[in-house]
């Protein structure tokens, strides 16, 4: 009984020539087709991509020259300054990509991609990126070289800058000190006493003004009195002058009398001398001598009396002169007083002005009080500012020092290193291997998935729909054994196909099959096929017909294809899809095959995939067992 | 006679629905046993239990002394089940199909070869040994369907409505086949809707309805028990429903049924036919044709089914 189902199934599969051919030919055909498409070197890329080019600038021409160097693009130049023309060209399929280079180099280039061509679009994008990166490098290199020069100059200017900062700091400290002094000086200003002084000053000025006015009045009175006095003086002077003149006449007369008397006396003397020289004692002589003496006495008396008159005259002259002087002085005094009066008027006016000034001073003092208050705030702010400025200055100086160091460090590096900080040499680790080498795990997995999935689901559905399943189970053969043998038969088919694909890949395309890991490779194929056969069987139990089974298979397998990482890398998927993709049996199969065919890791690396695959297979077969058992027993 | 199938108070429930209710039955070895009943009577359920496809809810069933539940594998190895529909592999040849099913019964290759040859010869398929099953005619396919169940030489062959869809010639050939198989000592349990088939083939018949045995016995006995005479009457205008209602109170009438030819009246005993005709006349019916015959198995079935329904 053992193996009956396997034998029967294999007979059924090989009974039809077409089926038999498909079992053998299908993997060969698939491998030949895919191999022909992807057998190029893995480093190669797309070529002869039509590229529309519009706009233009010197930079743009350089880009086009760069692109022309590769065989990737066929340049279709459009004589346009409108990017929409290029976009329309891509949209209408005239070219697969279009680039518009604006004349203004500050504007960005526009790359229009035909993103309906999902395979080519990223490659074109990458090619452009490489070209623009290269150009960017050149531009950056030039820019950085200039920058370096400037940085060196800047570095040399940092020392004076630091000194300047320190000087500013010192100035601010000094300013703060001065401000403090000003404030302390202002503190010394007693605004109250100032106000009192001003008040006193104001009162004094008022008193002064009153006094001045009083003085003016007094002066006026004095002047009046002086004028009166002057008048009296003038009168006295006139009187004195008249008296003087009169006295002068008298004096002159006296002098004339005296002179006459003197002549008489001189004549008497001479007569006496002449007459009395012999006997002075004669009476005559004595009378003459007496007359001479009396004449002398009279003359002396007259001289005495005349002297007083002369003195009086002289006094009068003096008085007259003095009066004239006094008059003159009085006039001068009056003039002075007049001037004084005028000055007093000016002074009173000045005092009024001074009042105004004092009011201004009062306002100023009030302002000063405000200034004093403000000054204390300013002072504290100034102190704060000084402190902050001190900190800032020290920070700034340390920054300047650090900047100097950084600039020193930076300019110590070559601009080329900065423009391209990481020099990337692409070194493919799998050298000499074709693209097909890397596709092999994916191709084998996909083909085996479809074959296993479809064969398993269809064969079970057929057994169910043709009632051969029930009939088989009406024999001593158990359902478990039936499913096991079915699985085994399908694994044999899948295994054969897997081997055929490997042989074709090796023979036709020289794909490297690691001979030391053949056991692992075969084991993966077996387990992987078993996983999908199990799932296919489970699906078949849910399907009512072969059509439903096929649709169910497609519904499951197509999303699996897209989530397997073969067509779209996991790196571009959302987290949830990555999680789902990693949990799929196809992904595990691909990874396990990669572990052997590409990485050649041996058993250790892929047991993590084989155990889950085995679980998938067992779970599928288990589900099929449960559902079929339920279906056939009741 | 030795009993090969013994059913004791067998019940099978599907939820609240009692598909079989306390059925007890003995089937003698070497007989052809017919299982009859209307749709939903419980025939298929009984077959399922006997062929180990369904576990009974109560009671027991034994085949050749083996419990169908406890000794499932052994039971399956001594019975052959022929499903209603042809179930074999069209892509395999006749011989390959027999070899496959033989191998499932753990028959060795040599035996399978010998047995297949005999069966194919017996079933007149010898010339088609290497023909693909899918290329056979309908009758041949039916025979191959039976052959697949015989390859292990079963003690009991269970056939589920095997003649459904066969033309009369093929049906006759099938009957011959069944008789041939039975002649080799194989007990045959057959379910059928065709009374003629049951009448022609079966040694004993069991009529079931609503999960219970209605009647069981030899076809002749059953027909005898069914009544003295059967009248097939047609009338104008033919309001047979009204006529049937008017006839049923007559004690001598066992049953009335309406068919395509008119009204079929089975008499319990000899009664004056005029009494029946009077009823027709009283209802304004003009008798057009009267045919008199003895009761057939179909009458037995209708009667049994009718009684059960009543």
List its salient traits.
heterodimer; A: 634 residues; mainly alpha; Alpha-D-Glucose-1,6-Bisphosphate, Chain A, domain 3; 80% helix; B: 310 residues; alpha/beta; Rossmann fold; Alpha-Beta Plaits; 2 domains; six-stranded mixed β-sheet; four-stranded antiparallel β-sheet; 14 strands; elongated
CATH architecture grouping of the largest domain in chain B: 3-Layer(aba) Sandwich
Biggest interface: chains and residue counts?
A-B, 22 and 28 residues
Terminus-to-terminus distance of chain B = 35 Å
- Mind telling me the CATH class of the largest domain in chain B? Alpha Beta
Helical content of chain B, roughly?
25-40%
- Distance N terminus to C terminus of chain A? 26 Å
- Residue share in helix of chain A: over 70%
Assembly classification: heterodimer
Q: Which sequence of SSEs, written as H and E, runs from N to C of chain B?
A: EEEHEEHEHHHEHEHEEHEHEEHEH
Count of alpha and pi helical runs of chain A? 16
What is the radius of gyration of chain B? Answer: 23 Å
Number of helices of chain B: 11
Shape of chain B: elongated
């Amino acid at each position: 009984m053992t193996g009956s189902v396997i034998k029967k199934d294999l007979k059924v599969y090989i009974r039809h020539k077409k089926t038999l051919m498909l079992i053998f030919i299908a993997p060969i055909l698939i491998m030949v087709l895919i191999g022909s498409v992807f057998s190029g070197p893995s480093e190669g890329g797309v070529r002869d991509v039509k590229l529309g080019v519009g706009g233009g600038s010197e930079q743009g021409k350089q880009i086009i020259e760069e692109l022309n160097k590769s065989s990737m693009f066929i340049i279709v130049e459009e004589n346009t300054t409108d990017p929409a023309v290029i976009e329309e060209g891509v949209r209408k399929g005239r070219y697969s990509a279009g680039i518009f280079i604006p004349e203004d180099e500050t504007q960005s280039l526009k790359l229009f991609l035909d993103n309906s061509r999902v395979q080519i679009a990223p490659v074109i994008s990458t090619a452009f990126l490489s070209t623009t990166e290269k150009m960017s490098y050149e531009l950056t290199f030039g820019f950085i070289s200039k920058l370096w020069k400037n940085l060196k100059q800047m570095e040399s200017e940092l020392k004076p800058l630091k000194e300047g900062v320190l000087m500013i700091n010192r100035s601010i400290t000094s300013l703060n000190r001065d401000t403090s002094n000003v404030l302390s000086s202002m503190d010394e200003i007693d605004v109250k006493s100032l106000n009192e002084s001003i008040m006193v000053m104001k009162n004094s000025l008022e008193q002064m003004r009153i006094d001045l006015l009083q003085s003016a009045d007094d002066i006026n009175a004095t002047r009046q009195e002086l004028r009166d006095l002057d008048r009296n003086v003038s009168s006295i002077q006139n009187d004195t002058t008249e008296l003087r003149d009169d006295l002068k006449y008298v004096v002159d007369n006296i002098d004339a009398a005296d002179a006459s008397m003197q002549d008489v006396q001189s004549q008497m003397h001479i007569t006496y001398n002449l007459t009395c020289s012999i006997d002075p004692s004669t009476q005559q002589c004595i009378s003459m001598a007496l007359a001479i003496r009396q004449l002398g006495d009279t003359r002396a008396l007259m001289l005495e009396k005349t002297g007083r008159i002369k003195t009086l005259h002289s006094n009068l002259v003096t008085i007259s002169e003095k009066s004239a002087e006094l008059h003159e002085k009085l006039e001068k005094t009056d003039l002075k007083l007049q001037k004084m009066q005028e000055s007093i008027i000016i002074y009173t006016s000045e005092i009024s002005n001074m009042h105004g000034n004092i009011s201004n001073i009062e306002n100023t003092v009030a302002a000063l009080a405000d200034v004093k208050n403000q000054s204390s705030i300013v002072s504290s702010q100034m102190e704060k500012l000084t402190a902050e400025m001190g900190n800032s200055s020290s920070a700034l100086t340390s920054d300047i020092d650090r900047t100097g160091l950084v600039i020193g460090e930076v300019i110590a590096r070559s601009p080329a290193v900065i423009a391209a900080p990481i020099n990337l040499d692409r070194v493919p680790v799998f050298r000499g291997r074709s693209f097909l080498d890397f596709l092999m795990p994916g191709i084998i997995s996909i083909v085996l998935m479809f074959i296993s999935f479809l064969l398993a689901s269809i064969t079970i559905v057929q057994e169910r729909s043709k009632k051969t399943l029930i009939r088989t189970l009406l024999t001593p053969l158990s359902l478990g054994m039936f499913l096991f043998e079915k699985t085994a038969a399908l694994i044999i088919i899948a295994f054969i196909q897997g081997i055929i694909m490997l042989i074709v890949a090796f023979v036709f395309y020289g794909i490297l099959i690691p001979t030391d890991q053949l056991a692992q490779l075969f084991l993966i194929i077996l387990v992987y096929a078993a996983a999908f056969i199990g799932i296919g069987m489970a699906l078949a139990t849910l399907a009512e017909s072969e059509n439903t089974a096929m649709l169910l298979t497609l519904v499951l397998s197509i999303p699996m294809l897209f989530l397997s990482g073969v067509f779209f890398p996991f790196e571009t998927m959302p987290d949830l899809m990555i999680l789902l993709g990693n949990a799929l049996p196809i992904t595990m199969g691909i990874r396990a095959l990669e572990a052997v065919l590409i990485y050649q890791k041996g058993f250790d690396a892929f047991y993590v995939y084989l155990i889950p695959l085995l679980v998938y297979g067992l779970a599928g077969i288990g589900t099929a067992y449960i559902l079929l058992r339920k279906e056939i027993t009741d | 006679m030795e009993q090969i199938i013994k059913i004791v108070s067998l019940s099978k429930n599907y939820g609240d629905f009692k598909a079989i209710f306390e059925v007890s039955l003995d089937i003698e070895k070497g007989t052809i046993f017919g299982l009859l009943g209307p749709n939903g009577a419980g025939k298929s359920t009984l077959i399922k239990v006997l062929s180990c496809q369904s576990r009974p809810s109560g009671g027991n069933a034994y085949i050749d002394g083996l419990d169908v539940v406890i000794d499932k594998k052994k039971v399956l190895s001594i019975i052959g089940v022929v499903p209603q529909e042809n179930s074999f592999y069209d892509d395999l040849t006749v011989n390959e199909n027999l070899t496959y099913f033989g191998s499932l019964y753990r028959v060795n290759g040599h035996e399978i070869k010998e047995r297949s040859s005999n069966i194919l010869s017996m079933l007149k398929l010898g010339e088609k040994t290497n023909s693909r099953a899918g290329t056979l005619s309908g009758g041949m396919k039916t025979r191959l369907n039976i052959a697949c169940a015989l390859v292990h030489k079963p003690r009991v062959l269970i056939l589920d409505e095997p003649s459904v869809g066969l033309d009369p010639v093929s049906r006759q050939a099938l009957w011959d086949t069944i008789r041939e198989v039975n002649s080799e000592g194989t007990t045959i349990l057959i379910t059928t809707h065709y009374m003629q088939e049951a009448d022609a083939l079966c040694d004993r018949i069991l009529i079931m309805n609503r999960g219970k045995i209605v009647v069981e016995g030899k076809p002749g006995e059953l027909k005898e028990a069914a009544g003295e005479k059967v009248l097939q009457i047609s009338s104008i205008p033919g309001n047979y429903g009204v006529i049937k209602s008017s006839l049923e109170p007559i004690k001598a009438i066992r049953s009335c049924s309406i068919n395509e030819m008119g009204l079929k009246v089975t008499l319990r005993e000899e009664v004056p036919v005029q009494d029946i005709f009077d009823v027709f006349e009283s209802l304004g019916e003009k008798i057009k044709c009267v045919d008199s015959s003895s009761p057939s198995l179909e009458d037995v079935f209708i009667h049994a089914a009718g009684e059960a329904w009543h």
